[in-house]
Amino acid sequence: MRRALRLGLPAATLVALALGSALGLAYVPEERHMGEVYRIMFVHVPAAWIALLAFTVTFVASLVYLFKSSYTADALAEASAHVGVFFGALLIVLGAIWGKPTWGVWWTWDPRLTTAAIMLFAFAGYLALRRFVDEPERRATWSAVAGVIIFVDVPVVWFSVRWWGGLHQIQSSKETVGAMMAMALWVNAVAFLLFYLWMLRLRFVVAHRRLRDELAEPPALDDTGA
């Protein structure tokens, strides 16, 4: 099972990414108002979804640690935060690339952009906290508390456009997206989800092994005290 997951997940991810790229770049038609630049949405939007998912996993795993003191949950929280920061950075960068030709600026203090930037830097700070605390139990506890508090911004990012408006468009629906575009978007979303699971598995193994080494009993001293 582990071997099938280790080999099958990367293969499925690469196939899905290739299919999603082909659909987004070549299959779907040009958008009427934005032209070709809209195609960046087939990466930007799934990156946003996966970033929010990853930080939600960190939040849930942090709660599990606080209630059960599970180091497995702590390792999962760390791993998901690492992958979430990657997707969050991708979200911000691609949004800026799309915003320049569409809005005329690389960055504006729009509610969605501002709350997304706060989310990214907050979880980057979460990872920095983990690096600066050496003792495993204290690091896990402090990080879990931070993960729960920082998560407050995740639903704010999702609802920011509905609450405060701004330049950023509201979430699309079946009525506002054509069938071909929706299909390409969902294929890319699945591809990014598989990519997230692949990266999460790799980061979890790294975090779990480090915890195992930190929590291992020190070797017994011999009679000479050496």
Task: Write a concise keyword list for the protein shown above.
single chain; 226 residues; mainly alpha; 7 helices; 0% strand; globular; disordered C terminus
Coarse structural class: mainly alpha
Count of extended strands? 0
Termini separation comes to 44 Å
Strand percentage: under 5%
Instruction: Give Rg in angstroms.
Output: 21 Å
Largest sheet: none
Notes on the protein architecture:
The chain is mainly alpha-helical and 226 residues long. It contains seven helices and no strands. α4 (111-132) packs antiparallel against α5 (136-150). The longest helix has 37 residues, at 179-215. 32% of the residues are buried.
Short summary:
The protein is mainly alpha-helical.
List the helices and strands and how they pair.
Layout: H1 2-27, H2 41-68, H3 71-103, H4 111-132, H5 136-150, H6 153-164, H7 179-215
Helix pairs in contact: 1-7, 2-3, 2-5, 2-7, 3-4, 3-7, 4-5, 4-6
